[in-house]
């Protein structure tokens, strides 16, 4: 029986879909549905599919014939902490690498906007106010600490090195030296690492181990006047503590793309802060995002057909 592929990715263009059709020609069938298709219809489609592309809910896959799930995101939080984790009936692959360049550029944009006070001047434009800030900083010669040295962390470090920034990396185990890091620390020494940095950049996955990892003690260990950036998951940061650190001056500013609750509630005090840049979980968005995602999918479809190891396979 031919495998059946269900594609639920609105961002794919007709050109992308034609490339997928050609890759499947002669060995698999395909159907495309809207990402926002109702649960009942989505689950009915899943019950007849062997490969799912998009963002299906983990519980929808129970008892289905699905053998491969190609997520359109790097995060796979929803697939943790359920029965699939202990005895998965399918292989899960994420989109690691697809958004790395975009997130790295988003981080650099936030860094310059904060240090050069661009966000203040944008606000001044609405008032036609010609007003210099009292202080403008340089990124050159500063020290950054990247907490989470995967594909995105590597792309960030690559760019910071070229900007003359000293880079410190934190990951679970140090292992071999990193080509773009001046120093590496294991997660057990994270407080020691962030204490050295002018810019602390959070790029960790969201899971039970990282929930509220950035709490009072972690922020208290940072250098006074440091900048903080979260382009990972809102669950990793205690937002009340973050707000207090910004109010007190412990942190000079923050660039935030993710939050505990999304969209960020209207009543959040973070909206009103001049030293905070807020973006709507858009760090990974790019005009090239779905080109890269399509390329990854095509590779994994061929690997499925030929029985080869998958790219970006997640170990549940």
Tell me about this structure.
With 316 residues, the protein is α/β, with parallel strands linked by helices. It has two domains: 4-98 and 287-306, Rossmann fold, CATH 3.40.50.720; 100-278, Rossmann fold (3-Layer(aba) Sandwich). Helix content is 31%, strand content 16%. It contains ten helices and twelve strands. The protein has helices at residues 14-24, 39-46, 83-86, 100-115, 118-126, 151-162, 190-194, 216-220, 239-248, 289-306, and strands at 4-7, 29-32, 51-54, 68-71, 91-93, 143-147, 166-171, 183-186, 199-202, 226-230, 251-256, 276-278. The strands form two sheets. Strands 8-7-6-9-10-11-12 form a seven-stranded parallel β-sheet. A five-stranded parallel β-sheet has the order 2-1-3-4-5, covered by helices on one side. Helix 1 (14-24) packs parallel to helix 10 (289-306) and helix 4 packs across helix 6. The chain starts with a strand and ends in a 10-residue tail after the last helix. It comes from Paenibacillus plantarum.
Sheet/helix structural class: alpha/beta
Quickly give the CATH architecture of the largest domain.
3-Layer(aba) Sandwich
Given the structure, what is the number of helices? 10
Biggest sheet: strands, sense, closure?
7 strands, parallel
Outline type: elongated
For the record, what is the CATH homologous superfamily label of the largest domain?
Answer: NAD(P)-binding Rossmann-like Domain
Ends apart, CA distance between termini: 28 Å
| Helix content, binned percent | 25-40%
Instruction: Using the coordinates above, name the CATH class of the largest domain.
Output: Alpha Beta
Give start-end ranges of low-pLDDT stretches.
Answer: none
- Beta content: 15-25%
């Amino acid at each position: 029986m031919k495998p059946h592929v269900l594609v639920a990715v609105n961002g794919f263009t007709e050109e992308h879909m034609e490339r997928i059709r050609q890759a499947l020609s002669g060995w698999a069938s395909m159907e495309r549905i809207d990402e926002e298709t109702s649960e009942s219809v989505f689950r009915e489609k899943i019950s007849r599919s062997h490969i799912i592309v998009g963002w299906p809910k983990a519980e929808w896959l129970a008892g289905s014939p699905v053998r491969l799930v190609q997520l359109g995101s790097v995060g796979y939080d929803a697939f943790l902490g359920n029965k699939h984790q202990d005895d998965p009936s399918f292989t899960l692959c994420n989109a690691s690498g697809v958004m790395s360049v975009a997130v790295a550029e988003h981080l650099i944009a936030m860094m310059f906007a904060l240090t050069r006070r661009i966000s203040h001047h944008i606000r001044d434009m609405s008032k036609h106010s010609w007003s210099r800030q009292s202080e403008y900083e340089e990124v050159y010669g500063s020290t950054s600490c990247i907490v989470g040295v995967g594909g995105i962390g590597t792309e960030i470090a690559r760019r910071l090195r070229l900007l003359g920034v000293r880079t410190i990396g934190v990951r679970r185990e140090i292992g071999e030296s990193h080509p773009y890091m001046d120093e590496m620390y294991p997660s057990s020494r994270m407080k020691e690492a962030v204490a050295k940095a002018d810019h602390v950049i959070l790029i960790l996955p969201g899971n039970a181990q990282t929930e509220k990892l950035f709490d009072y003690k972690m922020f208290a260990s940072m250098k006074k006047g440091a900048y903080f950036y979260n382009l990972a998951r809102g669950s990793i940061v205690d937002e009340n503590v973050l707000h207090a650190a910004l109010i007190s001056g412990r942190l000079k500013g923050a660039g935030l793309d993710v939050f505990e609750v999304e969209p960020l509630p209207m009543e959040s005090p973070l909206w009103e802060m001049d030293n905070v840049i807020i973006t709507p979980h858009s760090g990974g968005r790019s005009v090239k995002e779905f080109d890269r995602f399509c390329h990854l999918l095509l590779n994994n479809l061929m690997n499925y057909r030929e029985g080869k190891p998958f790219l970006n396979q997640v170990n549940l």
